[in-house]
Amino acid sequence: MNALPLLSALVAVPLIGAVVVASIRRENADAARWTALGAAGLVAVLAALVALGFDYSADAPWLQFTESYTWVEAWDLNLSWGVDGIALLMLLLTAGLTPIAMLAAWRDLDAVKRSVPAFFALILALEAAMIATFLASNILLFYFFFEAMLVPMYFLIGSYGTGPKKQYAAVKFFLYSLLGGLFMLVAVIALWVHNGGVFDWQTLVDSEPMADGTLQNWLFLGFFIAFAIKAPFFPFHTWLPDAGGAAPAAVAALLVGVMDKIGTFAILRYCIPLFPEATQTFAPWIIGMSVIGVVYAAFVAIGQTDLKRLVAYTSIAHFGFIGLGIFAFTQASATGAVLYMFNHGLATGLLFIVVGFLAIRRGSAQIADYGGAAKTLPVLAGIFLFAGLASLSLPGTAPFISEFLVLFGAFTGNEPVAVVATLGIILAAAYVIWMYQRTMQGERNPALDEVPAMKRDLTLREKALVAPLVIAILGFGFFPQPLIDAVEPAVDNTLLFISGSPEDLPAAEGVTNE
Amino acid sequence: MNEAQQAGLQIDWAGLAPMIIVFVAAFGGLLVEATVPKGRRLVVQVSLAVIALAAAFAAVILNQGKNGTAFEIEGAAIGSVVLDGPGLFLQGTLAVLSIIAVLLLAERRTTRGGDFVAEAAVVADSAADKAQRREDGATEIFPLTLFAVGGMMMFVVAGDLLTMFVALEMLSLPLYLLCGLAKRRRLISQEAALKYFLLGAFASAFYVYGMAMLFGFAGTVDLAGINQAGVDSGQPRMFLYIGVAMLAVAMLFKAAAVPFHMWTPDVYTGAPTPVTALMAACVKVAAFGGLLRVFNVGLASSAWDWHLILTVIAVATMLGGAIFAVTQRNIKRLLAYSSIANAGYLLIGVIALGEAVGQTMFYLAAYGFTVIAAFAVVSLVRDGDEEATHLARWAGLGKQSPGTAVVVTILMLALAGLPFTSGFTAKFSLFTAALQADELGLVIVGVVSSAILAFPYLKVVVLLWLNEPAPDAPTVNLPSPMAGTVVAAGVVATILLGVMPGFLLDIVDQASTFLNT
C-alpha cells in the first residue's frame, strides 16, 4: 500500500530541519521561524499520512509501516521503525503539538537577547528525538534517542528558560534523567547478554519469555526506574516542577505534553511485554505509588504560588491516573490510560500555552501578580478556564473519557484504590477553580493596570494556534471512538502478556507497506 | 652467543619496522638539533616526526594479520617482542594519536613562540628567563616525544618483563623531561616534572622487584612462561603474590589508578598542555596495553589470586576519580580526575580478561581522540599569553566564541557518555563485554561513577552557555592549522566513532586475541 519510508522520513525531516535552521544567521530570525514551522508542518502532514494508511482492524500486525536498516551489526543495532496504535496517537500528538508550540513561542524571544534560530533548531531536534523514541522498534535505538533527547531539552530550559532557578532546573532535569537512563543501560546490556545478542523488539516479543524470575525482576526495575523518572511517577517527580516552572511555556507544553509520555509509553511497549511476570510482581506497589501521586500532587498543586509549577504538579497527579490505568491490567483502564496520555497532552499543552500567554504579558507567572485579569482579557480568560476545566476532566472534554475509563477499569478488582483515586477528581476541581478564581476573578489587582500588555487580548496568531487544541479537546470529548479504535488492538496485544497467552498475538509477517 | 645460534636467529625486520622507524627518526631529530639552523628547525623537526610516525603507522598496517614473535631461533619463538592482534592495533593507535599530539606540540600561533621554554636550564623567573619568554621554544621536544612514543610502541608488544621494563623506562624518561619544559608558570611545571620523576622512579623500582619475585617463582621473565608456572610451579606461591602486587603497583601508577593516582592532577596541571594531551591519550593507551598483555598472557592462570584486589582498585578508581572531579575548579585538573575515572572503567576491561580485550582497545582509541581534542581546546583559551585554565574564566564563552563552545560541548557530552558520541559506544561495548564476563558489580559501579562524573562535565557546559561572560573574559586565540587539525580530528573521530562505530568494532574484534592465550 505504501512504499514510501514514511517513518524514516518522520525522524529525518525534523532532524534535517534542525540542521538547516541552526545554520541560519542570527539576524534572519524570521527565516529561521518560517523554515522551522515549515519542517514541523511537513512532519504533521507525514504523521497524518501514517494515520490514514494505518490498519485499525483487530487482527492487523502489531507494528505497522515497519522498516529496518542495518546500523551496527555487532550489536544488533538497527534503524528499525514500526508503529502501533499507541505510538500512532503519540506520534500525532507530537506532530500536532510541536508546530503549535513553535507558534506560541513565535515572538517570545524578542525581549531576550538569545539566538532565535538556535531555539527553533533545538525544538526541531527535540521533536526528532521524541518521534524516534515512539517509532523505534529496536531497544538500543530507543535508548539512543531516549538519552539524546536530554540535550536539546537541557538547552531549551537552561538557555531559554525564565526565572532565577533555570540553570538549577536544567541541570537537575539532565542529571536526574541521565541517572535513570544509566540504570536502564545496565538493564539493556544485561538483557542483551542474557538473550544472546538480540535488540530487535519484535524478535524478543515473539521469543519465549525470560525464565529466570530474579533476573526479570531486576531488569524490570532497571527499565521501570528510568521510565518512572521520565514520566514522572511519584516519588521520582521532583525534577518536573522545577523544569516545568523554568522552561518557556511553549517548551513546557512539549515537556509535559509529549516528552513525559515517553515514560508511560515505554512502560507499555517494553516493561510489560518483555518482563510480564515482574510487571505483575511489582504492580501492587506501582498502583500504590500512583494513587499516592494522585492525591499528594493534587494537594501540593493547591498550595502553589506559581502558575507553571502549579500546572506541572497537576500533571504529576494525572500521571498517577495513567499509572493506575496501566497497572490495573484491565482493557478499559489500559485503554483509558493511553487515551489519557493523548488527551492530557492536548489539555495540559493548552493550559501551559495559555499560562505562557499570561506570563509573557504580565512578565510573571506568580499567581499573586494577577487578580481580576478577566476584565481586560475576556477571551484569554475564557480559554484559560476551558483549558483548566479540560484538565480537571469535565464531561464533554476529551480527558473526561480517559479518566472515566481508567477509574471504571480500576474499579473491577481494585475498588479501594479506585475510591481513593476518585478523591483526585475533587481535588483537581479545587486547584483548577481556585487558580482561575485567584487570577481572573475577584478584586482587580491594581498593578495590572500599569502593564499595558495586560489590556491586549488574544492576537490573531494566538487565537489561530489555540483553536486546533480547543477543537480537538471538544471533538474527542464527544466522539472518542476513533481514538479507542486506534489503541484497542495494541492495548489488547500488550495485556495478552499479563492475562492470556502471547501465542494469540497477530502474526508479525504481514507487514502493511508491502 | 655461539655460531649455530647466530645462524639460526631469524629476525622479523618488517615486524620491528614501526619501532625502528620511530627510534631512527628520534636520533635523526637529535642530529637536526645539532646541524640545522635555529630558524628552520621547527619545520624540519615537525616534518620529520610526522613523516616518521605516518611511516610507522603504514608499517603497522603492513604487519596486519601477523601472529608470532619477532625473534626466532631455529624455529623456536623467543617471546621478547610479540606481534599479535592487540599489539599491532595498539601500535597503530599510538602512531595516529601521537601524530595528532605532535601537531599540538608544534602549535606556535596561540601564544608567541609556543608553550615550551627556549632554554630549560635558565633559572625560573630570573631576568634571563624573562628575556627568553619572547624566544621560540626549544625543538628538542620532538625527538624526546619520538623516543617516548617509540617506548610506548615497544611497551605494547613486549612479551617478557625485561623488554617491558626497558620500554617502560624508554617511554618514561623523555616524558619526565617534557613535563618540566613549560614556558609559563615554570616553577609549577618543574615541580610537576620532579614529582612525576620521583614517583615514577619509585614505580620503576617496584617493577624491578616484582619482576625479580616473578622470576624467582617462574624461573623465567617470559609472560607465557609465567602463566605456565602459575599452573605447575613448585615454588611458594607467596613469590607470585608479591611479584604480581609489585608489578601491578608500577603499571597502575602509569595508568593513574587510585591509590596510585596522586601525581596525576598535579602533573597534568603543571605540564605544558600539549604534553598533558600526549600523556592523557598515548600513555594511557600504552599503560593499558601493557596491563592487558600482562594480565591476559602472563597472569590469566592466577586470576583467582589477583581478581579481588584489582576489583577493589577499579571501584576506588572509578568512584574516586568521579567524586574528586566534582569539586574541581580548574579545567586541567577536572580532565585529570576524569582521566582517573576513565582508568577505572578501563580496569574493568582488564579484569574481564579475554572477553573484553577488543572492547578495552576500542575504548582506549575513542577516549584518546576525545581527550586530545579537549586539551587542545584548553590550550586555545587564553588570558593574554597564559592559558585560562580556571573554570570561572570560561563563563559565557558561548557568546564570544560559539564555535569553540560547540566543540567543548560535544567533547564534554562525549566524555559524559551521551549517545551518538564515541563516549557512549565505548562505554556500551566495554560494559557489554564486562557483563558477558559476569562482572555485574563493576558495571553498576561504573554506571554510578558515570552519573557522578556527568555533573562536572555539565558544569562546564553550563558555564559556557548559560553564564554571562566576565568583562575581561579570556580570548580564544585563533589556532594555526596545526592545533586546528588536532581539534578537528578529535571532534570528527568522537562523532564518527559514536555514529559509525561498526568498522572499528570489527577491527578490534579481529585483533582481540593475544598470542599464547
Automatic annotation (TrEMBL), chain B:
Protein name: NADH-quinone oxidoreductase subunit N
Entry membrane topology: Multi-pass membrane protein
Cellular localisation: Cell membrane; Endomembrane system; Membrane
Main location: membrane
GO CC annotation terms, alphabetical: endomembrane system; plasma membrane
Quaternary structure and partners: NDH-1 is composed of 14 different subunits. Subunits NuoA, H, J, K, L, M, N constitute the membrane sector of the complex.
Family: Belongs to the complex I subunit 2 family.
Catalytic activity: a quinone + NADH + 5 H(+)(in) = a quinol + NAD(+) + 4 H(+)(out)
A single BP term in Gene Ontology: ATP synthesis coupled electron transport
Pfam families reported in the protein's UniProt record: Proton_antipo_M (PF00361)
NADH:quinone oxidoreductase/Mrp antiporter transmembrane domain boundaries: 158-452
Transmembrane segments: 13-35, 42-62, 88-106, 141-158, 164-182, 194-218, 238-263, 275-295, 307-327, 334-354, 360-381, 402-420, 440-466, 486-505
EC number, UniProt record: 7.1.1.-
InterPro entries: NADH-Q_OxRdtase_suN/2 (IPR010096), ND/Mrp_TM (IPR001750)
Function text: NDH-1 shuttles electrons from NADH, via FMN and iron-sulfur (Fe-S) centers, to quinones in the respiratory chain. The immediate electron acceptor for the enzyme in this species is believed to be a menaquinone. Couples the redox reaction to proton translocation (for every two electrons transferred, four hydrogen ions are translocated across the cytoplasmic membrane), and thus conserves the redox energy in a proton gradient.
Keywords: Cell membrane, Membrane, NAD, Quinone, Translocase, Transmembrane, Transmembrane helix, Transport
Record GO terms (molecular function): NADH dehydrogenase (quinone) (non-electrogenic) activity; NADH dehydrogenase (ubiquinone) activity; quinone binding
